[in-house]
Amino acid sequence: MPNAITAFVRYVNVMNRHVGTIAMYLIFVMMGILLYSSISKTFFTPSIWTLEMAQFVMVAYYLLGGGYSMQLDAHVRMDLFYGSWSPKTRMLMDCFTVLLLIFYLFMLLYGGISSTEYALKYGEQSYSAWAPQMAPIKIIMCIGIFLMLLQAIAAFFHDLGRLRGVDILTGEDIG
Amino acid sequence: MSYEMIALLMFSTMMVMLLTGQRVFGAIGFVAAGAALLLWGTGGSEMAFSASMKLMKWYPLLTLPLFIFMGYMLSESGIAEDLYKMFHVWMGPLPGGLAVGTIGLMVIISAMNGLSVAGMAIGATIALPELLRRGYDKIMVTGVIQAGSSLGILVPPSVVLVLYGMIARQPVGKLWLGGVFPGLILAAMFIAYIVIRCKMQPNLGPALPKEERDMPMSEKLKLLRAGILPLIIFFLMTGLFLMGVTSLVESSAVGAASAMGAAAIKGLLNKQLIESTVRKTLGISCMFMWIILAALCFGAVFDGLGAVRAIRTLFLDDLGLGPWEILIMMQLSYILMGMFLDDTAMLVIVAPLFIPLVGSLGFDLIWYGVLYTITCQIAYMTPPFGYNLFLMRAMAPPTISLIDIYRSVVPFVAIMVLGLALVTIFPELATWLPEKVYAR
Amino acid sequence: AGKPIKWRLQTYAGAALAEHVIKPSIDAFNKAANGEMEIELYFADQLVPTGELFRAMQRGTIDAVQSDDDSIAAPVDVSVFGGYFPFASRYSLDVPALFNHWGLKEIWEEAYNEVEGVTWLSAGAWDPCHFATKDPINSLADLKGKRVFTFPTAGRFLSRFGVVPVTLPWEDIEVAMQTGELDGIAWSGITEDYTVGWADVTNYFLTNNISGAWAGSYFANSERWDELPEHLKTLFKLCMDSSHYYRQHWYWAGEAKLRTQGTKMKLTSIPDEEWATVEAEAHKFWDEIAAKSDRNARVVKILKDYNASMDKAGRPYRYS
Ligand code: NA
Ligand code: NA
């Protein structure tokens, strides 16, 4: 494998691991917002922003965490046949089908960028009384999707490398 | 292209894509985004992202990561060990008693959490090794844990019923109460099966030897204290919600925090535990969320291309069926799809199609929600695709093979189908409690 | 004949409501179009979430939209006047009168001409805006701290009285009342409360309203609209008018009938003197909105002139 590709795959892995490790703690932010919401509602006046803010955090959580979750191999597959194939067949099939996954992520990103452009151009605000600007969360979403896209591309190269007998990540010769 | 053609094409492509073994969300997302691009025209190119905004606004989804976190936290909190010791001693003398106790444990875990993940984690780490050590039949115990943990989505709280409620526009409180008796009935049926089976074949589940269960009554009673903490958690989470003090999403945060509190009380909460729990939570949450994201897109594209209309006409007009026949057809198609498909994807894609039909045929949607949930439980356990199967495979010791796991679910799936039939024939099993409580 | 022209139209109303407020007119359109054109009707958030609806129409994902300007956060300054602009109208006939005879139509055309890709077509009136709540409201103090589903601009206004406005997808409202995310709804009159099932999840209906009629519009993707042959454009205009007309009598009859004969909601009122403070506050709110742009100032001036003229005209326009 060319050095550039090896570097790319390793770099993407490290980056997503770092981003994901930060994103995974957003669960406490969600928890905090909602606990604050129930306390303020019970004892004081309810806040106008809690539910929407929690939703923003939820979206950031799973999109920014996406790439890392792929590294953790958290995404289920239907393995009726897949499970019984040899590792080589699996890699071969993955090399092809991951391209389709990449297509999906690309379309996701395409729509995200378009929607973000709109938000920036018109200063889009959420249609709520709190009316936060939508551009920041949309930008975060695009970053998350982009990182997922990079991770999928890295997975493609990783499989391709293994098919040709090298594990890019470990540098091991598995031919 | 006709609507029927589009429906057929999209579904069959999705099936093929799933069979390639690509990640489920990728398989579904690809078909959705591809169909939008090809068949919708340029406007379709943004449907994939549009689904992410839909997901954002779907507020009950906030409960998903929080319940998952809670499940993992509970399994590490030490609560389960105490409970298990209690059941162990109290049920031990019975043939198959430990398996019966495991079902009891699962019911209590189910009452504290809205998914089956928690039950699976606890079952596989605490109950399974113990049962195997005691000479229980591995196929039997593997089945017990999978079936027992699936009660997590039927006994309140339940994330599946929340999502169903959002699509069917039914009150979550009623749905949850609707799941209480069917959940307990299923548990009772599991227990009956275990006891009968072990009576006939005592080697499947040997009773505890006398010396082990010889314990003064006062000691035995003391063990019951294990139930206190779960009761408190249940009250804080489900109780406060049903009383209207906390809202739904708030209650899931309360639940998550109380599970953490329980671990802290037991002195088990530390940095390492938090980190590993948070990491596992991210993995499972991302898996669900990305599937929902792709499925929302699939559903909207399917709908926008007119395929939903085709299916509705098919069921209502073309097949010429009566209401009950349609209902049974739907249940059968759910069970069939549940073998191959993720239940969340199924809910997002298929339920918006089926539920209005069920409603328009005059059936009660609370009752149907319970039927739907039992179907999901079955889907969790039927090969080739089922979450409990996956989790079991990931967590089971190497002595338990894939074939063992597949074989283990057979009797329990049969019992669940029986339970499904029972609730279908006697809707009051599901509807009596919610109607009683909400009749005021 | 060739292939029929196909449009996807998404209304911001949910299915139960759309059954009345738009579906009959679309069915009639499809029949009259005689195979030349077919409009497929989709409901709230069905294909695209409401927040993304304007963008979706601009990009051609959706061909046409029925909504108020406010709910889809239309990127024009006058969008605040869509939906329920507080105390802008007293009767539902005020809306078409203002648009067709007092110059709002021209202002709307001007505003939307500045936005690429979307053509504003026509505005019409819906129902008045009342509170439907779990607990009774007998004074302004009772509004404090209530989490209420309402329109964005109305919500901003109501927050001055301690209301906590919440925005959720329309179809989720009924369940959100039951899951405790909401204490009430300030989104419609009593006809809708009964029609869409909200009367089943609330107990009280406040007879005071913050607006006499909701104003909502039809929009289309400009390219799609421009390429329609003249006769189909005409037919679509007739279709919009028929929908506007139906809502005029459906709500008017429904509001009175359900207040007097409905059994699911108890009526309560805030005394007139107390409610007058809300109206006074609304006029301050108007001035704040007017200060935001010249076009907004023109709209507010028209609203003021119109209301003054109604006062002057006396009965049946005004009784006091
Ligand atoms: Na549960
Ligand atoms: Na299955």
UniProtKB/TrEMBL annotation, chain A:
Keywords: Cell inner membrane, Cell membrane, Membrane, Transmembrane, Transmembrane helix, Transport. It is found in: Cell inner membrane. It is a multi-pass membrane protein. Its main location: membrane. Pfam families: DctQ (PF04290). The chain crosses the membrane at residues 21-39, 51-70, 91-113, 133-157. Residues 30-160 form the Tripartite ATP-independent periplasmic transporters DctQ component domain. GO terms for cellular component: plasma membrane. One of its GO terms (molecular function) is transmembrane transporter activity. The complex comprises the extracytoplasmic solute receptor protein and the two transmembrane proteins. Belongs to the TRAP transporter small permease family. Part of the tripartite ATP-independent periplasmic (TRAP) transport system. This is TRAP transporter small permease protein. It comes from Cohaesibacter gelatinilyticus.
TrEMBL record, chain B:
It is found in: Cell inner membrane. The chain crosses the membrane at residues 58-75, 87-109, 115-132, 144-164, 176-196, 223-245, 281-302, 408-426. GO terms for molecular function: transmembrane transporter activity. InterPro entries: DctM, TRAP_DctM. GO terms for cellular component: plasma membrane. Keywords: Cell inner membrane, Cell membrane, Membrane, Transmembrane, Transmembrane helix, Transport. Residues 13-429 form the TRAP C4-dicarboxylate transport system permease DctM subunit domain. It comes from the Bacteria. It is a multi-pass membrane protein. Pfam families: DctM. Part of the tripartite ATP-independent periplasmic (TRAP) transport system. PANTHER family: C4-DICARBOXYLATE TRAP TRANSPORTER LARGE PERMEASE PROTEIN DCTM (PTHR33362:SF5), SIALIC ACID TRAP TRANSPORTER PERMEASE PROTEIN SIAT-RELATED (PTHR33362). This is TRAP transporter, DctM subunit.
